[in-house]
Amino acid sequence: MIDNMMIALPLLILFLPLVSFIILIFFGKKLPRQGDWIAVGSIVTTFFFAVYLFIQMILAYDPGFSHGASFSWIDLDAFKIDLGILVDNLTIIMLLIVTLVSSCTHIFSLEYMKGDIRYSRYYAYLGLFTFSMNGIVLADNLISMYMSWELVGVSSYLLIGHWFEKDSAANASKKAFLTNRVGDIGFFIGIMLLYTAVGSFAFGPIFESIGGGSSITGLTLTLAGLGIFMGAVGKSSQFPLHIWLPDAMEGPTPVSALMHAATMVAAGVYMSVRLFPIFTPDALLIIAYIGAITAILAALIAITQNDIKKVLAYSTVSQLGFMILAVGTGVYTAAFFHLLTHAMFKANLFYCSGSVIHSMHHALHEAHDHKTDPQDMRNMGGFKEKMPITYLSMFISTLAIAGVPLFSGFLSKDAILAGTLAFAQHHPGHFLLPIFGFSAAAITAFYMFRLIFMTFHGKPNMKDVFKDIHESPKEMAGPIVILGALSFFIFYTLPYYNPISDYGWFKDLIVAQTSAVPGSMTANEIAEHSHHAHYLAMGLSVAVASIGILLAVLMYLKNVISAKNIASRFGFLYDWSLNKFYFDENYNRFLYQPFLRLSETISWLDWEFYDKYFINGFGRITNIFSKLSGKLDYEGIDQGIVDSFGRITGAAGKNLKKIQTGRLQNYLLYVVAGILIIIIVQAF
Amino acid sequence: MNSLDSYLFVSAMLFCLGIFGVITRRNAIAVLMGVELILNAANINFIAFSKFNGMNLDGHIFGLLVIVLAAAEAAVALAIIINIYNNMNTINVDDAAELKQ
What we know:
Chain A is mainly α. Helices cover 74% and strands 3% of the residues of chain A. Chain A contains 26 helices and two strands. Chain A has a two-stranded antiparallel ribbon. In chain A, helix 3 (89-112) runs antiparallel to helix 4. By secondary structure, chain B is mainly α. Chain B has a domain at 28-89: Helix Hairpins (Orthogonal Bundle), CATH 1.10.287. Helices cover 76% and strands 0% of the residues of chain B. Chain B has helices at residues 4-24, 28-52, 58-88. The longest helix of chain B is centred in the C-terminal third of the chain and has 31 residues, at 58-88. The relative contact order of chain B is 0.14. The model of chain B has no long low-confidence stretch (mean pLDDT 86). At the A-B interface, helix 26 of A face helix 1 of B.
């Protein structure tokens, strides 16, 4: 019974959103309320199913809890693909995250998207996205994971470009899709490398084969791992493919909360965690550096952004960098823990920003101001009294992301930083990793409080707009309250109540596995090192978080230190940060433009040279040949040979006609002459 | 001059004259006269072969038959000539070239 439920419920969770998508995309506009109740109903149902699975998992309380089912999709003897689902603790927690945030997004959007021109289509795409995300989570093999991976890319493209009338939104969706494609190509190469060596797409056989150490080793395995990780670089918006995520903020804010904060971008991390056993130490080192660079780079950019959603976007990139850094340093359970806590508080931050933007939008609408950017924090300030629920919830989530004790982010970030510190203690050559990690943590605390102070504290910057600011309705406040509450530590440490230790159900149920690659550090060693570094890391992380918060208080709350002065003193650094380290400009100059020029040159060669001279040359030569051959045929054969038969016959007839004079006497003469000739011939 | 050759010689001369007359004359009457000469050349042959080669009366019979035939032929031919003259106002055979084309 339980066994069947553990397969049937995940399948229902997987396919209900797809059913909702199919109904809404075809009949959405004809249904009452444009069918939003179908989407909300199906997603909330899947959420309850996920809760049921979660309760089963907690009741079992077994790290090895696992169920699976598969069927043979393609069987050509030599080439065989089995598709299936794998339900273990990792899957169930991830399903819970996806369905919870997705439900919140659906409910939040009821109000946020009210009156939108493509309301039903929006809900249809949300269903498609949830289906594909669940597909990634439930996959037990690389092929179905890759298919869902691409579907996530498509639905992300559709949702970012929801308001495609705006050029910026259309461009952002294209950019997101294409940037993801770059990573996906690597992913696919990685899959194929593994398949060639192992002969199977399913996780189990791959891990076993690598553990056996015979089929794929050394550099090939490193390359396969890095190829697969490239997929995560694209999807989880890591350096150097992080450029799409900030632009993706052109989509509706609930979409940003669902996809570009909690779930879709977490897919890369989830995949790295799921496939952790295949990464070689070399690959992990590169992964760690990419994560660390992403974390610090995005944090530095976030400092100077003024668009509230851009700050959150870069903060997401930075936090994803943390997770990838954790995977790279081997503490991948910490990465998944951070994924879980981050999904909750970051989704909440996005909902809160959505609530603020929604309110600003309405206020600007009231004031008949269509020029002011409703997302620019410089136009806000002092919203604390007007939007108390949003403020409180956002403040709690900010404490969580900043890594303040008592909140969820502290636990997970601390675990990551401890892992990084332990890694550096073990490999002193890589001292940069913890430095990047701790600096990014400090900067995170700083810019998040900068956001809070600029938005909610101080004096209102636009008085006429401020008077119309109001708290959001209950459809929007509900998710904010729920997710805000989930930023407290208690939900992650039960059944223990120690606010500064991450011991709890999560740590009991998600136990690190040793990498399948022979010669890697065992999970126990990693845990041991990490444990030794734990208190040092905790002290340091509290210290850096306090420094960050203090700086923010001094600069943006008390105005003791002038931000402008610092900006002008570090002019070029400020410019770099404000302009996102000129990534887009440099990509444009060194990648896109040369590539476009190359394409133009090739197209010129193709059209101007190859087509015009080679292909058309063939045409011309053929033309000349056929003209010649036509001439030969017409003038030579037709007119020469065929017609000359006629001419000869005609001429002969014309000439012979003259014999026929019509005079009997002539005829008689011929007769006589003929007889004479016959007689003469006879005579001889 | 009592041999077959002299008869045949006269007959051949007569035949040649007849052919010559038929071929060269423009006047239809003259052509008819040529034809009569040819018939009579044949008659002389019949009579000569009858006399010298033991054909007995067969040659004579044929000779008489040819005379009758010549008479009938002359009658028909003259009728044709009169008709031609009535239709075309000439008895020049060159003008009566209706067979041409």
